[in-house]
Amino acid sequence: MAHAHFVADTHVDRLADGRYRGRATERWHVFGDAAPNGGYLLAMAARALADTAGQPDPVTVTAHYLRPVGAGTVEITTDVVKTGRRLTTVQASLVQDDQECLRVVGAFGDLDRFDGPDHQDRTPPPLPLRDHCLDLNAVGAALPDDAPLRPPAVAAQFDLLLTPPTVGWMTGQPAGRGEIAGWCRWAGGGPMDSFGLLVVADAFPPAVFGMGLPIGWVPTVELTVHLRQRPADGWLRARFTTDSVTRGLLEEDGEVWDADGNLVALSRQLALAARA
Amino acid sequence: MAHAHFVADTHVDRLADGRYRGRATERWHVFGDAAPNGGYLLAMAARALADTAGQPDPVTVTAHYLRPVGAGTVEITTDVVKTGRRLTTVQASLVQDDQECLRVVGAFGDLDRFDGPDHQDRTPPPLPLRDHCLDLNAVGAALPDDAPLRPPAVAAQFDLLLTPPTVGWMTGQPAGRGEIAGWCRWAGGGPMDSFGLLVVADAFPPAVFGMGLPIGWVPTVELTVHLRQRPADGWLRARFTTDSVTRGLLEEDGEVWDADGNLVALSRQLALAARA
FRET pair for B264, CA 20 to 30 Å: which of A272, B27, B97, B202? Predict the structure, then answer.
C-alpha cells in the first residue's frame, strides 16, 4: 500500500520538454504535519530529472530547500547541463504557486552499467533483531491524544523499527549522542528502488534528537544523496549520525544497506538545529 | 607567497550583474598537470557567488565537474535562487571557450552571525608532531627526474605534512585503507579564509590511494563542502577517508580543523576510481 502510494504520489506528467507536473500529497508530511518530507519532494523531482536525462538512476543528487511546499500541484522545470558517456548532469526547479521551493542538481546514470573496482571497509550497522526494536508507528499509536510529539504522516509510509538506545529521547532519555538506526521498508513491504532510497535518506527522525538538544523542527538546508546500487528486495538497514553542531549548523550523515548486505546509499545533509 | 597567489588567482572581475571574469593559472594544476584542482575552481566560483549573494561565506556549496578547464580566462555567470534572512541560495556556471565546465549551487551567509547550540562529538585527527610527518613537496623534490608520480603544481601552494602511514602508497606500501591525514597551511604560511578552505578540501592526494587500488586520475563528479566557522590563523589539521568503492564509485569525506581546535569544514565528494 505504501509502495503504491509512493508510485502514485511521486508520479509526474510530462507537459513538454523540460516541463513536468506533479501533486504533493499529505501522506508524506513531517513533524508538525505542515509540509512534505524533503526526501519525498526530492524523489518527485528526481523522477522528472531521470526522464530528462534519459538515465534511470540518481547517482549523486543535491537539493536545496528554499520554501515549504503544501499539499497540491507542483511544477518541475528541468534542464540538461551536460550529457556525458556514463553520467548526464541535470538540474530542476520545483515550483508551487509561482515560487521556487526546491532547487536540485544531480548526475544521473545507470547503476547497473558501472564497472570498476570494489572495496568495502564499512560494515552494515549492527542492529538488534527486529523483534527487539521499537516500531515507531506502534509507539505513536500508543501515545495519548495530547502527546506533544507523535510520529508524522511520513512515518506511516514505512515500517521503521528503531534500535532502543537511539530513540531514548522519545521517552525523555536521550542517549547523549546524535545517532538513530534501525530497520526500514515500505509499510507492509513492497519493492524499493533508487527513488525510494531518496525518501529513506530523509525519513528517520533527526539523529540530533539523541544528543539531548531541544526537540523540534530541524529544517534541511541542503541534502545530497549518493546512490551506489539498486537495492535488493527486503528490509533495509540504515544509520544516521550527527557528530558536530556548530552554532546551530549540523550535518546528518546516513548509510543505507540492503537485505543482501550491500551499501546502497550514502547521504549527508546540512540542517539547522531546533531552537530551545 | 602562496597566499598572495591564491588571492590573485581566484580574483574575479565583475563585468555586469551576474557576470564575472577570472583567470585560471597553472599554479593549481593537479596530477598530470593538465587541469586545475577542483577546489581551486570552486573557490573562484565561490568568490563570484559571495559577491552575488552579498554574503561573505559559502555555508554549503556543491560543484559538479563537467569538463576540464585549461589555464586561461573563464567566465562565471551567477543567479540568485532565493534571498533568505540568514542564507542566500545562489548558482553559478563557470564557462571556458563557450563550454560549461563547472555548475555550482550553494547557500551563502555570514558564519560569524549564526547562533544556536554547539555540540562536538568529533575530535581533531590525532597527528604526529609536524617534524615526524612527511613533507609532500620535499618528497617530490627528492624524486628522480623520471619518477612516474610526482606532487602536482597545486601541492607546491601548500605546506602539506602527511602522516607516514597514510602515504605508504608513495613508496609502494599502501596501508590497505583509504585514509590520508596531515597538517596543512599555505606554503610559507599566511591567512586562511573560507575560500581557501574550499581548496584545502580538495588539495590532498586522494585517500583511495591508501587502499592499494591502482594509482591514477580520480576524477571528481561532485564536491560538497560545508563550512562551520572561519579558520583561525596557523596550521590546519585535515583528514580524508574513502571507505566504500562500489564498481568504481567512491566517496571521499574530509574534516578540516583549525589551529584553535575548531572544526571548520566538512567535505564529501563523489569520484571515480582510477582505472587499472
Answer: B27
Contact check, Cβ <8 Å, B244/A229 = no
Residue A10 distance to chain B (closest CA, Å): 24
d(CA B12, CA B152): 24
Look at residue A142 and give its three-state secondary structure.
coil
Helix (H) or strand (E) holding B47: helix B38-53
Is there a contact between A70 and A29 (Cβ–Cβ < 8 Å)?
A: no
Residues 6+ away with beta carbon under 8 Å from A172: none
The answer to whether residue B268 scores a pLDDT higher than 90 is yes
| H or E element that contains A96 | strand A88-96
Interface pTM, i.e. ipTM: 0.97
Residues A111/A60, Cβ–Cβ less than 8 Å:
no
DSSP state of B133: S
Model confidence at B49, pLDDT cuts 50, 70, 90, reads: very high
* pLDDT value at residue B148: 66
CB B265 within 8 A of CB B203: no
Average pLDDT over residues B20-36: 88
Give average pLDDT by consecutive 10-residue segment, chain A, 276 residues. Answer: 95 98 94 85 98 98 96 97 97 98 98 96 96 92 78 91 93 94 97 98 96 91 98 97 98 98 98 89
What residues form DSSP beta bridges with A108? A58, A88
Contact A116 B266 (CB under 8 A): no
Strand B178-186 and strand B158-162: the pairing is: antiparallel
Are A117 and B273 inside 8 Å of each other by CB? yes
Phi and psi at residue B186, to the nearest 5°: -55, 145
Would you state the cell numbers that stand for residue A163, as one nine-digit string? 534500535
- pLDDT (tens digit, 9 = 90+) per residue, B151-199? 888 989 999 999 999 999 988 899 999 999 999 999 999 999 999 999 9
Of A59, A105, A119, the CB nearest to B213: A119
What pLDDT shows up at residue A143?
81
| C-alpha distance from A249 to closest chain B C-alpha (Å) | 7
| The pairing of beta strand B12-16 with beta strand A236-242 | unpaired
Q: What CA–CA distance (Å, rounded) separates A57 from A55?
A: 6
Alpha carbons B116 and B118: distance in angstroms, whole number: 7
Give the sign of the dihedral formed by CA A265, CA B263, CA B45, CA B158: negative
- State how far the Cα of A222 lies from the Cα of A243, in Å rounded to an integer: 17
| Nine cell digits for residue B229 | 566557522
Rounded distance, CA B20 to CA A201, Å? Answer: 37
Residues found in chain B: 276
